[in-house]
Amino acid sequence: MKPYSFFKNIAVIIGILSLFVGGTSFVMADQPHDPYADRPLKEAAQEDKAQNLMTSLRCLVCQGQSIADSNAAMAADMRAIVRHDIEQGQSPEAIRQWFIDRYGDWVSYKPTWSKRNWPLWLFPLFVLLGGLLLLRRLFRKEKP
């Protein structure tokens, strides 16, 4: 067997395999999300709780959208979890904490004070104090 024909056969096999793998990705990309994700809860009070919670949770796929606003399949799955857990009687804070435990603080639009993020909470205060000290120094009258 010639070396050229060996590499040609390998290239043909890789090409055929990539068609199979690539073809399935198009099929998987168009899968519908959970049909129950967008079905409102029967009780209006529960649906209000679910909506408030969904607007405070960030979509993990989209940039800067809440799961209430996102059309991503991941957001639909998260909405279904929120509605199911609210319907089962869990508190919104317990559900939020479950998402934070699973995906990290980034998932919540309402972050909490913790040992890991305290510099983020105090940084604006330090910038403000530094700016005030700078202004005081710039506009202080010189003593003769």
UniProtKB/TrEMBL annotation:
The protein's name in its UniProt record: Cytochrome c-type biogenesis protein
GO biological process entries: cytochrome complex assembly
TM regions (residue ranges): 118-135
Similarity-based family: Belongs to the CcmH/CycL/Ccl2/NrfF family.
Keyword Signal on entry: yes
Species the sequence originates in: Zymomonas mobilis subsp. pomaceae (strain ATCC 29192 / DSM 22645 / JCM 10191 / CCUG 17912 / NBRC 13757 / NCIMB 11200 / NRRL B-4491 / Barker I)
Function: Possible subunit of a heme lyase.
Record InterPro entries: C-type_cytochrome_biogenesis, CcmH/CycL/Ccl2/NrfF_N, CcmH/CycL/NrfF/Ccl2_sf
Lineage of producing organism: Bacteria, Pseudomonadati, Pseudomonadota, Alphaproteobacteria, Sphingomonadales
